[in-house]
């Protein structure tokens, strides 16, 4: 009964607010208290009882009342942060004000004229003395952010009280929040007892904080990284005395979370997991605050770069703390936590739906990316042992699972970007040689082999059976294969055949000539084959055998037509068979047991648009591996074999079809001559010249038709002294740039928008960073 009355009274207050044409005085507490004093409303109630149309109506018709409502709600939070909310009633007031502000803020941000409101001081709005500091009144936004930070470490509200006496009220001003970190982990050893009320209260405050940061969604996308989000800038600055304990609390809560709980089947159906809601908000706050780096690398600044560094605005303490984590046990805690959560959706049990499956893997991938990007010691730690494979396998699972679903194109990109970043390090290639025995159910052919085989088989599946919009990623996928190829000791027959099937598909003359950059794909594959032959010939008889069997593909490449008439003829053949890659000839075998085929998005699924990704030559820089294993950067020349970088700075976008063939046909013809003579075929041609006669002779002499005998011969064969001098190993390392920074911002906020549906914080507001599209 009480709850219904309370909702009714709250709704009456909202109606009064929307129908009043005269400004209501800020001092009229009897009116304003109706919104928070005697009601117990959940955030879902507030969203239902305060319709969007009414918020917009008040904004347009009685702006001073909307301003006063915001100001009064912030004032209540500031008072609560000072008093420490000793009574239940005060705690409820704080929660009500938090929900109301989460509801209203997006409507403040969507209107350009209102956006500065929170950054102004509110003159004569019945300010109480305690809000007027000596330094003059703070902007409303700063008061709000500091109050949220204080309330996140409020004993008996969001953290356990340490004092237990008759007068056990802790002074909020003198509290050392580093003693109240929410969870054990990085830099903190005690794990406080779980308290679901505290988790719920933290979740509401973090939701409001995320809403404050979301002003970024209402500004159009731009590659100008100097425009900083004032909310994040202030919150992550030294003005926030809780920055360190809060960063640590968020990171530890995420990395310590175990969704499977106590291992009781169906436990997630029996009780609500309040910790999961907290973890979701925590990981979203982390990625949003860490995105806020403006693409300027936060390495320790050298004296020469210090002035520049200062002018970019105050340092982001969250980025600073992340980059300074260095203890092995901290790295281990973070990596194991992320791997456990990323692997969770893959876990198969004999009882259907018996384990809880988390939904926030995209946010975890962005967090992992940030860790590797800002903390090179963490990246090296990840690659130091085969623990990196616990990250690789879930990423390959997500890539394979999402390949047919256009609403998950962003997930495909982040997964590929992470693998591109990792593949720039030698250790990643070495780790891939570990045998793959986990066998997560994926709809890929069954094979026996290593993690390298798994990677190649999944990439082949993406390229041959993914949707059209993944074409801009083909360059990245093959760059990863090239980067790891010098270290692959022994490919399985399945993986070797997949690589040759890709070469066969990409080297048909109509595909090569239809789009100006298509020949890059052939160059990448040939480079990978050359690396394996030159550096790992001994263990790779499967690949050598596959190359011998498909030798005609290499002969055709060597004899590609370059006269306009023949090219025109090839392009006409293409028109009759518009499929990008022939699905035949890839020897599809039975998929793994227990796997589900990749399916397109359900009709009506919402997705957010993404900006274009830069071309591979902008995404990466070349490094040469010297004899002692160190990498030396290769200066960019205008005439690299995958040239024309300026002409094609941006490869098709994720949301429009990749560059249409028609526009590029002309340039395809004119450049055919320039790249054809650079095809790196010498090593393979020499291999065929030496081995084909030998294999043919054995087959005739011994009457062999059995593959295994030929493989045995190849296994013991040698090409020492017969091949050209080994070329230096070239690695294309990921490099940050304005284009990818913008891509990450759009992708991350798109994920946050779509994942916050209960309540739907930003739904139906005028978001401008991306478009919301229905599948």
Automatic annotation (TrEMBL):
Residues covered by region (Disordered): 575-603, 623-667
Domain of life: Eukaryota
GO cellular component, one term: membrane
UniProt xrefs under Pfam families: Hid1
Biased composition regions of type Polar residues, renumbered to the chain: 583-592, 638-659
InterPro entries cross-referenced by the UniProt entry: Hid-1/Ecm30 (IPR026705)
Endpoints of the signal sequence: none
Name by which UniProt lists this protein: HID1 domain containing
Classification of source organism: Eukaryota, Metazoa, Chordata, Craniata, Vertebrata
Gene name of this polypeptide: hid1a
